[in-house]
Amino acid sequence: MADITRRTLLGAAALTAVAPAARASEWRPARPTRIVVPAPPGGITDIAARLLAGRVQEAWGQPCVVDNKAGGGGVIGTTEFLRAAPDGHTMLVGNIGPQATAYSLFRNLPYRPDAFMPTSGLIRGPNVLVVHPSVQANTVAEFVALLRRSSQPLNYGSSGIGQSPHLSAVWFLQLTGAQATHVPFRGSAPALTELLAGNIQFMFENLIAAAQHIQAGRLRALAVTSATRSPLFPDLPALRETAPDLGAYDVSTWAALFGHAAAPRDAILAWNAEARTMLQNPETVARLRQAGSDPHVTTQEQFAAFVAAEVAKWGDVVRREGLVLEMN
């Protein structure tokens, strides 16, 4: 399914490349541009970068190279980006990890939020709360009641400590006052394998990764983590709908565009304009939603406010949980 999703989204690049550009700035690159991606090829961050590269290459008539620099939970690529000249020719397509949660998770992170100019939202999509079919709960309310009354805490898996699925569960448990035991894995695939086998009882997972198991009845979905329901599963509630305690709950994984803090303002606005044009193309919107994600269309100011809110939100969650990690 991941391969199908990647081909579907990459196919949108050609469609969006010919859309007329929204002109908020007269800035144009004087040479080829580069988009640094602090993640491996194939995931949501890489897909967002390749869609944008196709758009700006056509609009500006200059090659745009996508440069994957994976490792260190996104920190390696982010640090590499900051070494480039702050002239608008090198941009970063980052994500919720290195550009939001890392600031509070890592004691010795080599950069701070003020090193970047948040430029534009690109893609965001929900996680989903899924339980093994043996769990005696069909709704979020029943599941919370089960967690609260269990004499032995249920086990939940994640793709790793501090990753979005882990923090989705942490915040859920904080808001509901429930207890569960975290079992971290090296990636979502082994965590899903253990959940399907019934060796752990629940987890928060990317909606697309879990969708085929939900549809086949191998997992029971209780709710999505985003503020609104997903078009892929319109009958599945958002967690914040299900109880007053969860009214503030809103979690999406996201990929977005960042520039250097010292980059020219005109360059930042030009990149933002091209991103908005791409994301408002009806074909792009349809393809993203088919793949379980939404276009995140923002002005530069709106996206800066979004990032600040994400950093603050996850900082509070991480501090309450007492999570502190060291950079290797």
Question: Topology, pairings included?
Answer:
Blueprint: H1 2-16, E1 33-37, H2 44-60, E2 64-68, H3 75-82, E3 90-95, H4 96-105, E4 116-131, H5 140-149, E5 155-158, H6 164-176, E6 181-184, H7 188-196, E7 202-206, H8 207-215, E8 220-224, H9 239-242, E9 252-260, H10 265-279, H11 282-290, E10 294-295, H12 300-321
Parallel strand pairs: 1-2, 1-3, 5-6, 5-7
Antiparallel strand pairs: 3-9, 4-7, 4-8, 4-9, 4-10
Helix pairs in contact: 1-2, 1-11, 2-10, 4-12, 6-12
Estimated radius of gyration: 20 Å
SS element count, helices: 12
CATH class of the largest domain: Alpha Beta
Q: What is the correct CATH architecture of the largest domain?
A: 3-Layer(aba) Sandwich
Instruction: Give the helix/strand class.
Output: alpha/beta
Most strands sheet: 10 strands, mixed
Uncertain stretches? 1-23
Please identify which CATH superfamily of the largest domain we are dealing with.
Bordetella uptake gene, domain 1
Order of helices and strands: HEHEHEHEHEHEHEHEHEHHEH
How much helical structure, as a percent, in the residues? 40-55%
Counting DSSP E segments of at least 2 residues, the number of strands comes to: 10
Pfam families: TctC
InterPro entries: BUG, Bug_dom1, TAT_signal
Organism: Neoroseomonas eburnea
Protein name: Tripartite tricarboxylate transporter substrate binding protein
